[in-house]
Amino acid sequence: MTGFLLALKSSFGFLSTIPVGITMEGLDEFFKRTYLHQVVGIVLGLMMGAVAYLLISFLPVYISAVLMIAFIYYITGLNHLDGVADLGDGLTAHGSVEKKLKALKDMSLGIGGVAYAALIILALYASLISLYDEASVLYSTTADLARIFFFAMFVSEVSAMQSMLTVAAFGKSIHEGLGSILVNNTTVPKYLIGFVIGSIACVGASMYFGLGISGIFVFLAAIVATFVLLNVSNRHFGGVNGDVIGASNEFGRIIALITVTLVLMYGGIV
Predict the structure, then answer these.
(1) Is 173 helix (H, G, I), strand (E, B) or coil?
(2) Residue 94: what are its φ and ψ, rounded to 5°?
(3) Domain-by-domain residue ranges, the chain?
(4) Is a pLDDT exceeding 70 seen at residue 268?
(5) Which terminus of the chain faces fewer neighbouring Cβ atoms within 10 Å, N or C?
């Protein structure tokens, strides 16, 4: 197996629960090509979009939203949500940077972590319901609503992957680990390759579904919001780690879904 194919296989093993197997050699090849985040994002986005399409087509929206969230965590795992929880513990810890870092890296879960993880899940659910409400104003058929959800789930996952690359490319590592390896290997050229792939995927999807170039606004909104998260992490911890990178995935996905809703609500793009 060539280095690229091994890296591609390992990217799915690292970023999803798809049982492709993963080795240290494979991880080394993947970290040399961190832009493959976007290949994984496109595939996972298509899977999530297809599931959302079917759920919206046959089930009430409230049940559909819960099942969509369940599928997201089934296919991506809980590592990123765990990063949100650890980030929450670190951000809510009082005192010096050292105390915040200790809380960030602590294996035990505190009330800050519980609160942040719960808020992320609630925000994800609220974003899906709000998306349905706004889409229902513009579209009258179930088929059209299902198409909007396919689009939203696809671009939000692509955007979430770019959020992770944004933290890795522009963040400063605070300790050794998988996060630091990702940070050290995500150079600006690799980031830009991921950016181009993600941009084309999002714009292509929005044009395919008759939403103009709105996909680029969704993609950029997630990136801008990630820079805010990066700034917060720098102020509290002096840099980033794997938890912050994982949390950016969850954060970017929600910002993207909110942006799709706002595009439908305010944009004359539809």
Answers:
(1) strand
(2) -95, 150
(3) 1-32, 37-266
(4) no
(5) N
Question: Which tokens go with 167?
Answer: 């933290």
In the chain, which ranges are E strands?
Answer: none
Alpha-carbon gap, residue 97 to 76, rounded angstroms: 31
Q: What is the DSSP letter of 211?
A: -
Report residue 154: phi and psi, to 5°: -65, -55
* Cross-strand pairs, 37: none
Rounded to 5°, the CA angle 245-162-110 comes to 25
Short-list 40, 43, 46, 225, CA closest to 152? 46
Rounded CA-CA distance 134/8 in Å is 37
Confidence of residue 270 (pLDDT cuts 50, 70, 90): very low
Q: pLDDT of 175-212, one tens digit each?
A: 888 888 999 999 999 999 999 999 999 999 999 999 99
